[in-house]
Amino acid sequence: MVHSVTRAINDLTPQALERIMATKDGPDGWAVRGNTVHNALEKHLLGLAGEAEYGFVYDEKWAPWIEPLLDHWLWEDCKVLGVEFKLCDPKKSLAGILDFLIVDKNGNTILGDLKTVKTSKNIDQRKSADKQLGGYLMMLLDSHQLYVDKCVTLISGPGTTAIKISKPDDCLTSWLDAWMKFEAQQPDF
Question: What fold characterizes domain 3-184?
Fold first, then answer.
């Protein structure tokens, strides 16, 4: 696949992208934080928790992000349909990996994306991932004829986890707008 959902929705200015990339690496960078927290959620949802408190060993400095996330009410009595699930649209040469797809205790099918933030103050500032979720939703509909009742952006910060719930139709609209802009910028072959 030539394109990714993440790349297609990227509407950052070069300056904003430069600021983000400046904090990516290092022992406290967002890349290690994001990877560690995503790994914890994946293991938790796959039911791999065993002798270790949450199923795998991680640096204790990430516990304030991981523990509230794994204790979130969204996971109560849920059925996991997919975790880190790879999707593609061969016609668009597009691929992406959704973070989680679950059926909650009320029978709602929920598509979710996990984001991490450096401080709890940043939680309210973090936008929902509607465009990204819409890209995954489109591929779920096209390839698997799977319908979703809710889309959620789960935001993990130190000491707390917040949830932003979006309507699937709003996510699809956001995605289609982003895809049309992205596609218009691609060279003709």
Answer: Lambda Exonuclease; Chain A (3.90.320)
